[in-house]
Amino acid sequence: MSTKKANAIKQVLSQLIADVFEKSGNKALNYKQVSAKLNIADPTSKNTILSILQEESKSKSGLFKEVETGKFTLRELHTFIVGKVDMTADGSAYIVTEDEFEEDIFVAPRKLRNALHGDTVKVYVYEKSRGRKKEGEVVEIIERFRSDFTGILSISKRFAFLIADDRKMLHDIYIPIEDLNGAKDQDKVVVTITDWPQGSKNPVGRVKHVLGKQGENNTEMNAILADFGFPLAFPTAVEQEADKIEEVISPIEISRRKDFRSVLTFTIDPADAKDFDDAISFRKMPDGNYEVGVHIADVTHYVQPDSALDKEAYERGTSVYLVDRVIPMLPERLSNNLCSLRPNEDKLCFSAVFIIDDQAHVKEQWFGRTIIHSDRRFTYEEAQEIIENKEGQFSEELLILNKLAYILRDRKFKQGAINFESTEVKFKLDENGKPLGVYTKERKDAHKLIEDFMLLANRKVAEFIGKQGKGKNKLPFVYRSHDAPNEESLASFAQFAARFGYKVSTKSEKEIAKSLNALMHDVEGTKEQNVLTTLAIRSMAKAIYTTKKHSHYGLAFDYYTHFTSPIRRYPDVMVHRLLAHYLADGKAVNEEMYEKMCTHASQMEKKAADAERTSVKYKQAEFLQDQIGSVYSGIISGVTEWGMYVEIEENKCEGMVRLRDITDDFYSLDEKNYAIIGQRKKKRYQLGDEVQIKVKTVNLAKRQIDFTLMS
């Protein structure tokens, strides 16, 4: 027998022996007991098992160890680890730990012990054999990631099942007839898991919400919200608390504040906006400088710590912007009424007020509570028209503000900020929410003017607190942090961009920013703009909330926070409270408590972004449902083992060309070069390539679009 074949047999036997120890709970066994459990009786095979156990126990990296004379167990490396379940399509999973250097642990389906995707679990870890991935089994479910699932209800005479929408939920949920809550067969519903009896393949649940009929706009949008864990309505106690808030502003409250009601003030927002959380005031000073006030709705005046309103806002973390609706963080009485800076009404604000010279240098600053009276509500389009035509109401003030914004923006980019201008897809919807058309939103000067003054306020508030006290004396605060890009990801992106003739320097952080800005400028309006911008953003680190003072790499600010949107972001509520506390000479707060709140806010922000993307995908699928057979030009926007994603140039809808549908060759993924390559003819389809596709099928339930590649 060849050495190679003998080694292969040994490897198989080692794996079988390891299975014996696993099934016996890693109890110490001798070679005879192992042989018996494997139903091996012949002496030669028994001796082979003994030699494997002895050899492995003598090697430091061996799979087994001798615990007493002639008795062995599996060698325990890290006996138990805690991590999150990342489920795969075949029912197995990988356990991902918080330690980025720790290898993911593979868990076979039968060893998951009813753990579901996203659950935090404790895993017993063992090694199958040298050179193979770590494997383990779940011994405890520490925390369920979720208990609510959306899906389609299937009802028979005696019981019902929920077939979940989530592709990573591989178990149907059993529902007793008495727990249907009025739901009918084939309804789309939200079901909460109430029990999972030992030994049962399926969990037991009850219907929590009936969403409606599959395919109806309202049903599908609510299903997306429920899927990501966002509530569909405010609890009664929260609504009642909001309704009890006094609308009239008392003279005593006005006397506590700086009065800006006589200063020219206006808002600039989207045409369909209902909550106006920021306003700009402007006046010329006698010395030729300008006073610019950034006035933010004073949410913390109305929402008191630990109230029902506050707890609900914290749990939600953010407002969610789906294609056709906003799910606000605060009830409508606050978000669209009391806190909304509507024109011709006195409103309470928390403000950052700056004295700025004509080169946009801040000469003085003041932070505090104010009362304002907005003179005009501009839409972005109205403000843009005045800026472009240089005439109209408040044109002089708008033009000066626009000039100052240009200087602030230019300075930011010179200091190393990165200018990412990705395409935002919007839909024209009919009264039932059905998409009639798709268009891309263009950002003009009016958008950027507001953005630049909001950035100024956020930066200056963060600097004001961040520069006070060092080491043990520092004042804990909520920052918006953005790390420098991962070197490997950036190098990979630079290599890809070079295919299109764009050079990305990775020599230093400043060089990276400079070359990325040049790239963003050069790709504007090109067919590869979206692909390159998306990939560039993916190569960047993700921005998070934290009490740890970090710079914001993408904006090139040493200090940065979120102060300007407390109606729709809970971290801004935290920032307002902390700023008021420190302005009143309050002592340092509990940093650990605020860091936990920051972590929760970052998680909810990610969930909201995922929900928003999912609603866009649904509307894209719904839009193309009537376009089956239509041919479009598209750009390859992603490549995977099973196909390539193509984004239609005309409407930015994205679908997949599956490899099994490309019949002229056998294609496989070249991950390093972002390409799909034919094995015989070596034909290559690469990220960014232009292709012709035909709309093949649309699956609305799965929000999937399939294309056929045109030859």
TrEMBL record:
Q: Which reaction does it catalyse?
A: Exonucleolytic cleavage in the 3'- to 5'-direction to yield nucleoside 5'-phosphates
Which SMART domains did the record assign?
CSP (SM00357), RNB (SM00955), S1 (SM00316)
Source organism's superkingdom? Answer: Bacteria
State the organism named in the record.
Olivibacter jilunii
Q: What is its main location?
A: cytoplasm
Family matches, as Pfam families: CSD2, OB_RNB, RNB, S1
Q: What does this protein do?
A: 3'-5' exoribonuclease that releases 5'-nucleoside monophosphates and is involved in maturation of structured RNAs.
The molecular function GO annotations come to: exoribonuclease II activity
- The S1 motif domain covers which part of the protein? 629-710
Protein name, as recorded: Ribonuclease R
